Amino acid sequence: MTSLSIRPARADEIPALNALITASARILSQGHYTPEETEAAIAHVFGVDSELVADGTYMVVESGGETLGCGGWSRRATLFGGDSFAGRASGLLDPAHDAAKIRAFFVAPAAARRGVGAALLAACEQAARAAGFARTELMATLPGVPFYAALGYVAGSATTVDCGGVAVRFVAMAKQLSA
Fold first, then answer.
1. 174, 135 Cβ separation under 8 angstroms
2. Tens-digit pLDDT profile for residues 42-90
3. pLDDT digit string (tens) for 115-147?
4. Per DSSP, what are the bridge partners of residue 33?
5. Among 70, 101, 137, 149, whose Cα sits 20 to 30 Å from the Cα of 156?
6. 6: helix, strand or coil
7. Nearest one of 142, 148, 172, 109 to 34, comparing CA atoms
């Protein structure tokens, strides 16, 4: 793979990023979620949070002009969920006390396991650290748990989210950022 570039997402890219998220969820969730769980999560939880795009903290990973992944970090209270998720909270966090949120990481299926997610996570952690945060936390999908664990995240509570009458499992994870 040629070199990766990471830049802030633009509002006009949201439809294409949501399509990447849908494709990623459908392919990379196989064996972790049933098709019904995957479709329910796509409809009710997964997707771009346009507030992060407006904040400049939602990123796109590209190589050779092709979008390979997306994800971001946030100084806002919402832990997970795109624009369609009803449980969002816009309040700002205090870096002295709160953890930055790692949000909505998805990789194009053809680019999976090729360093895209790791490069994106490193960039997001660096930006959160530069904003004064000492910790990060996230809500991982089941296929995401091994990825985040390999990069220093510690699993906390498992939770189930009602996605339109379908229970979908997630795992809370956290990491102390090094100075």
1. yes
2. 999 999 999 999 999 999 999 999 999 999 999 988 776 655 555 556 6
3. 999 999 999 999 999 999 999 999 999 999 999
4. 30
5. 70
6. strand
7. 142
- Distance (Å) of CA 29 to CA 21, 102, 139: 11, 19, 15
**E strands along 26-134, which residues?**
58-63, 66-74, 100-107
Alpha carbons 51 and 148: distance in angstroms, whole number: 24
Count of residues for the chain? 179
Give the strands of the sheet with 154-163, arranged side by side.
Answer: 5-8, 58-63, 66-74, 100-107, 135-140, 166-176, 154-163
Q: In the chain, what are the domains?
A: 5-136 (3.40.630.30)
Q: Do the bridges between strand 135-140 and strand 100-107 make them parallel or antiparallel, or are there none, so unpaired? A: parallel
Contact 63, 1 (CB under 8 A): yes
